[in-house]
Amino acid sequence: MGRDKPGKPRRQRPMGPDRDQVTGPAAHTHDGFDIADFTDPNGRPVDHKLLGDLVAAAYDGCTTCQDPLLTFMVEDPATSARTVELACVAIHGMFGGLPQSMTDEHAPGSTSSPEFRRLARVGLDGENDAMFRECERMSLAQRRAAVNTAMDTLIGTMPY
């Protein structure tokens, strides 16, 4: 394989920010999840279609779809924060609160990323606006870590 040697042709990568190029009709599909419309506490819009598509791909265990969708997700702080918020709501509903391992950076045995714990901690006691503001300050890599934990948590609470 090389520039002038025959071999497997390069696959064209989707160009531009249009995620439908990644998950469009030519790609396989996942049953969508309907995520209720939501605007963050300061009116920043949340991309419900993107969130539903990512939840569907994660629920199906499809990393082929999850990775590009996650890339789009972390570029949107409000949708990233909403994902963390939904994971926290799911755990709160199951256990009547968030365990210390999901909020305390020094808690032993935590499987939550430090970035997820940071957002969950500032969102405690219903301070969702603080969670959204903190998520805006995060780098793309930090948001990705927080959303990865949120997706694992959220999918883990869903029945199969």
Structure in words:
Helices cover 52% and strands 0% of the residues. The chain is mainly α and 160 residues long. Mean pLDDT is 81; it is low at 1-17 and 19-26. It starts with 19 loop residues before the first helix and ends with a helix. The chain has helices spanning 20-23, 48-59, 63-74, 77-95, 114-122, 128-137, 140-156. It is built from seven helices and no strands. The longest helix has 19 residues, at 77-95.
Task: Note the topology.
Layout: H1 20-23, H2 48-59, H3 63-74, H4 77-95, H5 114-122, H6 128-137, H7 140-156
Helix pairs in contact: 2-3, 2-7, 3-7, 4-6, 4-7, 5-6, 5-7
> Which bin fits the share of residues in helices?
40-55%
- Mean pLDDT over the residues: 81
How much of the residues is beta strand, in percent?
under 5%
Round the Cα radius of gyration to an integer and report it: 17 Å
Class by SSE composition: mainly alpha
Supply the number of helical segments: 7
| Distance separating the two termini | 43 Å
Number of strands: 0
Write a concise synopsis of the structure shown.
By secondary structure, the protein is mostly helical. It has helices at 20-23, 48-59, 63-74, 77-95, 114-122, 128-137, 140-156.
Any descriptors?
7 helices; 160 residues; disordered N terminus; globular; mainly alpha
